[in-house]
Amino acid sequence: MIGDAVERSLRSPQVLISVDELFSNAAGSRMPDVRPDLLTDEVARRVVAACPTSALKIDEDAGRTHLILNYGECTGCGRCIAAGGGTFRYAEKVTRCGVSKQALIRSWDIQGRAEVVQDEPALSQAAEQIRALVGRALNIRQVDAGSCNGCEAEIVALTNPYYDLERFGIHFVASPKHADMLLVTGPVTRNMAAALKNAYDAVPSPKLVVAVGACGCSGGIFGRSHAVVGPVDAVIPVDGYIPGCPPTPRMLLTGIVQVLRPFSLRW
Ligand code: SF4
Ligand code: SF4
C-alpha cells in the first residue's frame, strides 16, 4: 500500500511554485492596498475608524492631509477593505518585505490623490558583507520570541516541496552558531528577552536579523501586554521587517531574499 502511494506521488505532475510567482504574487497575504484616485477625506476617516489596530492614521500637516498605512501594525483583518467602498483592496503584490521599518509605512496625499514616494535607504553594512560572504548559501536560525505559532506554521511551509526553500541555497540550522541570519517571530516576551539576546550574541558576525509578522515588527496585537517587552528591535538590532499576521510563505521568502538587497523588489 505504501508502495502505491509512493508511485502515485512520483507520477504526479510537478507542483513546485515558480520563482516569478513567488516574488510577484500576494495571494493569501490579506495586506491592503489603496486606490489613490478614489481616496477622499471621508473615506480616509472611515477606514481609520474601522481599523482595530493603529495601522491606519491620518496625518495633517501644513494644510495637507495624509493617510498613513503601517504594514508593520496591520493584521490583515480586512475591515478597511469592507469600509473603504472600493478605495481599499487586497494588494496584488506584496514585495514590501525584508525592508527597513520606515519602508513598511506608506503614505497618500489625500488632496493630491497620489502616493508619497519615499527615499530608498542604502544597503546595510551587514547585508553587503554577508552578500559577499555567503555566496550561494544562507543559514537561518529561527527564534520564537513569543509568537502564537501562526508565523511558525508559515515558516514551516517554506521547506515543503511546493515552496522548496532549499533550492535557493537557504537552510534552517539548529544552532545560532551556524547561522548567518536570525528569523525572529512574535512580540518579545519578558521570559524570552534574555534568550533572544543570547541567540543574537551567538551568531557570528556579520549577521542579519529579520523580524517576522506584525508581532515581530511592532508588537502586534499582544504588544501592550504586561508580559511583552516589545517588538524584536526593542531587544536586538533588526535589518529587515516582514509584515503580515501571519506573513505568507511568499512574503517570507521575498523578505529573506530582499534583506540582502533592499528595494530591488517593489510594489
Ligand atoms: S487590514 Fe490592516 S489596515 Fe486594514 S483595518 Fe485591518 S489592520 Fe487595519
Ligand atoms: S504576527 Fe500574527 S500569526 Fe504571527 S505571531 Fe503575531 S499574532 Fe501570531
Shape: globular
Query: Tally of extended strands?
Result: 13
What share of residues is helical? 25-40%
Percentage of β-strand residues? 15-25%
Distance between the termini: 48 Å
Please explain how this structure is put together.
The protein has helices at 2-11, 19-24, 41-50, 79-83, 125-134, 150-157, 190-202, 213-218, 249-258, and strands at residues 32-34, 56-61, 64-70, 88-90, 105-109, 114-115, 138-144, 170-172, 181-185, 188-189, 208-212, 228-230, 240-242. The chain has 267 residues and is α/β, with parallel strands linked by helices. The chain has 2 domains: 23-95 and 104-115, no CATH class; 125-258, Rossmann fold (3-Layer(aba) Sandwich), CATH 3.40.50.12280. It binds iron/sulfur cluster (2 copies).
Question: Any chance you could write out the topology, listing elements then pairs?
Answer:
Elements: H1 2-11, H2 19-24, E1 32-34, H3 41-50, E2 56-61, E3 64-70, H4 79-83, E4 88-90, E5 105-109, E6 114-115, H5 125-134, E7 138-144, H6 150-157, E8 170-172, E9 181-185, E10 188-189, H7 190-202, E11 208-212, H8 213-218, E12 228-230, E13 240-242, H9 249-258
Parallel strand pairs: 7-8, 7-9, 9-11, 11-13
Antiparallel strand pairs: 1-4, 2-3, 3-5, 5-6, 10-12
This protein binds iron/sulfur cluster (2 copies).
